[in-house]
Amino acid sequence: MRYVQLCERFIIHEFPAAEIAVVGGSTARGDRTPSSDIDLLIVGDDLFADDATGLAATYGFEGEVFEVFAYTHDGYSEWARDGISQYRPVIVHMLLEGREVRGGEALAALRDRWRESLADGPIVGEHELATRRYAITDLLDDLRDAVDDLERHVIAWSLFEKLAELMLLVDGRWIGTGKYLPRRLRELSPTRADLLASPLLAGDVAAFAARVDEELSRAGGRLHAGFVR
């Protein structure tokens, strides 16, 4: 409750015309860390003095750091559709999973509008999945051929990211960036996530490559010669 009240004071100070406001992230979940900021989604048609439809900005207020995502209604729809098309609907997750600060019926209506889109999961074409398999195949070969330790580690972590995304998309799950990618992977399967991550964290590149091969086969197999991008 303290953070909801703090968010309302911030909104009064910076975005008094806000119609809808939702606090998300670790603040909404109740698992903040010492360095956590406050993620705040704001929607309203009179937020901006000019013709802007959206703003992503960082503010300091009462000793806290606010990461603000502010949009007009049209701007929110545009950015939400863009996130869905990239399989990472961050602001839709914020809208649906965050805690209400302002909104009432208007917030409920906006949530109803986007809830089905999120629940349906990403719509990924076969060519998109094939392109991702092709990229993973290429990286996997690079990993096995690499002799420089730095190159091997860089390739391995890039491979983890791309494979985790493929695993999620094949299963009809949304992807994420940064800390949200392993979280989404664990939601998919704690066992598969651990089998993939453990050898990588232990520095066992050979075992990691073997596990990547297994997951790649599960997603359709290697793809290289003859593939048209």
From TrEMBL:
Protein name: Polymerase nucleotidyl transferase domain-containing protein
Polymerase nucleotidyl transferase domain sequence ranges: 21-49
Record InterPro entries: NT_sf (IPR043519), Polymerase_NTP_transf_dom (IPR002934)
Organism listed in the record: Labedella phragmitis
One annotated GO molecular function: nucleotidyltransferase activity
Coiled-coil residue windows: none
Top-rank taxon: Bacteria
